[in-house]
What does this fold into?
Amino acid sequence: MNLVLSEPQRAAAAPVAVEPVVEILSAEKIFANGFRGLAPIDLAVGRGEFVSLIGPSGCGKSTLLKLIANLIEPSDGKIMWWRGPFDAVGKAGRQLAFVFQEPTLMPWARVARNVRLPLDFLRLPKAKSEQRVRAALEQVDLLPAARAYPRQLSGGMKMRVSIARAMVTEPDLLLMDEPFGALDEFTRNRLDEDLVRLSWQRHLTTVFVTHSIYEAVFLSSRIVVMAANPGRVFAEFSVDEPYPRDENFRESERFASRCRDLSALLTEASFASRKVGP
Amino acid sequence: MTPLAQRAWFWPVVAPIGVGVLLLVGWQAMCDYFEIPPYLFPSPKAIVTAFLDDYPTLLHALWSTLKITFQAFALAVVLGSLTAFIFVQSRVIELSLLPYAVLLQVTPIVAVAPLLIILVKNTPVALTLCATVVAIFPIISNTTIGLRTIDPGLLSYFRMNKVGRAETLIRLRIPSALPFFMAGMRISSGLALIGAVVAEFVAGTGGRSAGLAYEILQSGFQLDIPRMFAALFLITLTGVVLFAAMIGLQQMLLGHWHESALKGET
Ligand SMILES: Nc1ncnc2c1ncn2[C@@H]1O[C@H](COP(=O)(O)OP(=O)(O)OP(=O)(O)O)[C@@H](O)[C@H]1O
Ligand SMILES: [Mg+2]
It folds into this structure.
């Protein structure tokens, strides 16, 4: 397995030139039941990077993302945000937003109030937050649905509300766990295009979990391929393509060849994920 | 314009009323045909006549029973929700107090009522307490479940945003609990009425604070069966009105978002 890995690993070894937003320093996760979810991981995400995590099911992608969101704590090692502890996250210029796999909206609140929720947490003046909510809904094309209830929306629309709720805080670090996994191909492509445009316009730093090779190549500046048993970083894969990207990139030969390379790498990662021992 | 028979409300309203009218007509016809004496089984006409003969007393009794019912219901809602809030604060509190709540629930009110009536000198207060004991349990258990049944994703979202306990309670737990709370209210309102009537039966108080149960007892002693039925119907009517009011309230609070209150829309 060492043979095939040399090429992507060289890309990984290149130091991150820009200021790191997240640094994972030998962070390891052993769950309460003794299960080793993540072997010690080292990973840095630089400012403005779009990093995707991809790998076979159960390799710890969600666990790694939760560590980055501070939803769970590492059993060993540490994580730094903007070169400091998590306490400073949430201050100006260090806003973090998390988009779950499910839309996780409040069913009793209209779309606009759902999007406003994080601003209410921040105690923003009403007039100002209304204006930002409107802008966020406009970005995801949902202004006409502002007064609807979540149950009146399609799955894709709900997901867009969830993204608007993340965008409304004008985050600096955006974490997304398979946000479009439950959507059809067409809707997913559209949302991917929206996302790539938004993150480009806003200079967002994004960590994105996905199962889709095409999605990872389309969105990312760097792809982290993970393997399971135990969960670890298997290889890293750079996508040196200029932003903003659009459907032209998706139809290009370069895109196809990147997808083939990533697919081969993923096959190796799956192979390396087989259970060892009895 | 939509024809009347195709409106959404038409059949749910008209069909039960139709059945009711048919039943009443059949009942009256049976009583007339077989010449059943009113002291065995009164006809609707006899019941209406009995009500009109004595409606000031009966309505006064209805008012007494209603007062007990509403007081008990209000008390059950307030105390029950408070208890639920205390329960969800910690497992230890819930585990140590829940058995007593269950104790209240399983002890038949008929057995407790005499004791309460002896202990509490003021009869209306004693009656209210009895009815509260009956009505409180559904509020406690439903609200507790509701406050615990929260979308784990939303809970993570609140945690990630470092939202405090009080704010999480107001913004997340209470709205999530509302459908459960409303279901508890519906059961509890009926139980408050039952509790009030049972307590009145046991207390047997007459005079100015005589309730419908007392009127039923009195009518029984005097073999005035039509009057007994009239009092009984007033109780039933109260129950129906309470139930409808609860449905209305639920519709108002949850109608736009919760499955339990959505009508004919999927
Ligand atoms: N709280 C927990 N306690 C014990 N084991 C857990 C816990 N959470 C996750 N795991 C285990 O850790 C491993 C990694 O889980 P994780 O959810 O991170 O995988 P994933 O890569 O996101 O998978 P998928 O692609 O299917 O979402 C899995 O084997 C899972 O069973
Ligand atoms: Mg996952």
Observations:
- The two ends of chain B are 25 Å apart (CA to CA).
- Chain B touches chain A at residues 151, 153-154, 156-157, 159-163, 167, 171-172, 175, 178, 254, 256-258 (CB under 8 Å).
